[in-house]
Specification:
Elements lengths: L14 H13 L3 H13 L4 H21 L5 H24 L7 E6 L7 H12 L3 E4 L6 H11 L3 E5 L8 H11 L7 E5 L5 H7 L3 E2 L3 H20 L1
Parallel strand pairs: 1-2, 1-3, 3-4, 4-5
Length: 233
């Protein structure tokens, strides 16, 4: 980077360059630049959904991966998330107008005894970005909270998160309680968090373990499509 490098003028970039620049700006947590980029693409006739998926979700996927690999840390991820929120604030009403209706509804929260929420917040944001309706229960959720919320909200998906090896087993408590109540099969259950793995997800009876926010979005879409297919079959 030289001092005399010219300032990048977003409106002078072609579409591909602009999307690339927005990914960089999102990575750097530059909210105003993201808002400007979103508006430029809208003026150029891009659909809200395309801007969302290609520029914002595309950018957040990189942020999520670098966070997982220890290249980015919590403050940077929060800045990126905030920049994404700025872009989403412009797109949300437009997505609603274009009838990009919610694909499904997800109740998400960190389990009892665990107060970590960065990963969960990233998942919430990217799921929302992908067109899901999200009900975020926050941290430290006992089994009763989860069950009350999924029934009240008529959710399709229950997402549980844990960052501590000591709180992971609580996910099984929630799933076992749902089985006892005969409601387990009414919901898609996705689990995530650094100490988990696929084997653990299977062992506790979850539908899937999602290693990061990008995977959570893809997995949720797959299960919802399957659910709709079964419903129409």
């Amino acid at each position: 980077m030289s001092d005399e490098e010219e300032e990048i003028i977003l409106s002078e970039l072609d579409d591909d360059e602009l999307v690339q620049q927005m990914m960089d700006d999102l990575y750097d947590g530059l909210k105003e630049e993201i808002e400007e980029g979103v508006n430029i693409l809208l003026e150029r006739g891009w659909t809200p959904y395309r801007i969302l998926t290609e520029a914002l979700v595309g950018g957040m996927t990189i942020v999520g991966a670098d966070f997982r690999d220890g290249i980015l840390f919590v403050p940077e991820v929060l800045l990126a998330a905030n920049a994404m929120k700025g872009g989403m604030a412009i797109l949300k009403p437009l997505l609603a107008e274009t009838g990009a209706r919610t694909i499904g509804k997800m109740v998400i929260g960190t389990v009892k005894g665990d107060i970590h929420d960065i990963g969960k917040n990233l998942v919430s944001m990217m799921m929302e970005g992908a067109g899901f309706e999200i009900v975020d229960l926050g941290i430290n959720n006992p089994v009763e909270e989860y069950i009350e919320a999924i029934q009240r909200e008529e959710a399709d998906i229950l997402g549980m998160s844990a960052l501590l090896t000591t709180t992971m087993p609580y996910m099984k408590v929630v799933i076992d309680t749902m089985k006892e109540q005969g409601i387990r099969d009414d919901y898609i259950i996705l689990v995530g968090g650094a100490p988990l793995n696929e084997e653990f997800g299977r062992a506790i009876g979850a539908d899937a373990y999602c290693r990061d926010a990008a995977v959570a979005v893809e997995t949720a879409k797959t299960f919802i499509a399957r659910k709709h297919n079964q419903a129409t079959a």
